[in-house]
Fold:
Amino acid sequence: MRHNRLLIDFHVHLSQYDLLLDSPREWFLSCYPSEKNYLDLCEAYGNPDSFCELLKEKGVDYAVILAENTLMLLALQAISPLLIFAKDIPSSFLFAPLIP
Structure:
């Protein structure tokens, strides 16, 4: 909660993907001092408990976790691991876009 208002982060991706294309990966890496820093962060928040702690630390009351299935643009994340991850986070919702 921030400023006595409910805070919902409607655009959350998990830190680990089944498959990540080179272009977004390079962009992600450019935001960190080193590849090791980036990979350490991905691993640190790759489990529900630490992810929950991060949400609490940032004052997020609810998080909408987005499934990434636009391989031609970014990455691929299977839905089943997201379901397992999200079930352990009571303040999360899973949103999976369906592309016919």
